[in-house]
């Protein structure tokens, strides 16, 4: 399946309001109307089908003809998934936000906090950049809190809902 950036995606890219993980941003940029989902997944960027599904779900990517891209990326690769396959379990929602939404809110905060530490926070910043899930950021939160102090870490705590 070929995907392109939607109008909303183009606008978000221009004003830099995406709030994507580095992998998602790389994948988002690669969708130019010529590359298929399989091509982007095969580029070696560490992008997963879930990353692409999140971009589609956020309305940032769509089909070139404007029709909804309702087929999940993993299914688009194989086109053999049975029509009766069970729906994936819904993520646990806390305070009205899914773990993915909390991750998307917390990742830029954690990156900003750790990059502001300079050289002494370099390793911690690398750990944050390697975090790909909400649970990864929750595990790093105590280290970030210890490095920046509780007052500075309060924004991260709010984003994580911890």
Radius of gyration: 17 Å
SSE-based structural type: mainly alpha
Q: What is the percent of helical residues?
A: 40-55%
Biggest sheet architecture: 2 strands, antiparallel
The helix-strand sequence is EHHHHEHHHHH
Shape: elongated
What attributes does this structure have?
162 residues, two-stranded antiparallel sheet, single chain, 9 helices, mainly alpha, 2% strand
Report on this model:
By secondary structure, this protein is mainly alpha-helical. Helices cover 55% and strands 2% of the residues. The protein contains nine helices and two strands. The chain has helices at 7-14, 22-30, 37-41, 49-57, 73-78, 99-115, 122-130, 134-148, 150-160; strands spanning 4-5, 61-62. It has a two-stranded antiparallel ribbon. Helix 6 (99-115) packs parallel to helix 8 (134-148) and helix 6 (99-115) runs antiparallel to helix 9. It is elongated. The protein starts with a strand and ends with a helix. The model is unreliable at 76-91 (pLDDT under 50).
